[in-house]
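2024-03-11 09:14:02 INFO receiving multi-entity request
2024-03-11 09:14:02 INFO entity count = two
2024-03-11 09:14:03 INFO echoing inputs for audit
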Amino acid sequence: DQQVKQNSPSLSVQEGRISILNCDYTNSMFDYFLWYKKYPAEGPTFLISISSIKDKNEDGRFTVFLNKSAKHLSLHIVPSQPGDSAVYFCAASAGITGGGNKLTFGTGTQLKVEL
Amino acid sequence: DGGITQSPKYLFRKEGQNVTLSCEQNLNHDAMYWYRQDPGQGLRLIYYSQIVNDFQKGDIAEGYSVSREKKESFPLTVTSAQKNPTAFYLCASSVAGTSVTGELFFGEGSRLTVL
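2024-03-11 09:21:47 INFO inference complete, emitting structure
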């Protein structure tokens, strides 16, 4: 049962345009959401996160939007750059359990930014 | 430099053999995790440990074993009971307890291929 879903396995955008990556979740206990970026043969690196008490978080070119009623979040990258080409994973947490944090990951979206 | 070191980066194994993947961190993190990545399936949690000498099964623990004798180290053994061990394995760590970000720090991964 996939609790975090990224329904688009791939996305292609032109350099300078906006990239929008989507993520849906089913577990209403999730209260913290993160986006990770991954290059081939490397470990994922943290990109941006959002708590369920917010609906938007911005960090430079990256903005994450959370719609709790729809159980949907999205990552916006503006403007997109060729170096943004990577796999993006959405992840969710049901809260810090006092000793660690289990994240549930989506299946990833391969973003390709073309010149 | 602080970080997570996984070794070996590439490993080949014959069917029926056990192999151990190493994971060492010098971030002084209490919690450590092992994930497995397969094409189209995202990252799935194998085992995690919130404190030395304690660990819990994740979503796909069958055929794997771990130990946590030292805070810095969390080796993963892929046993011959694991039916489909060929995959990319990722180790991660996080601050436990006081962390509110939920952020995991990942190593660069180990690719295991069973011949």
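2024-03-11 09:21:48 INFO post-check: The interface with chain B takes residues 4, 6, 9, 32, 34, 36, 41-46, 49, 89, 91, 93, 96-108 of chain A (CB under 8 Å).
2024-03-11 09:21:48 INFO post-check: The mean pLDDT of chain A is 91.
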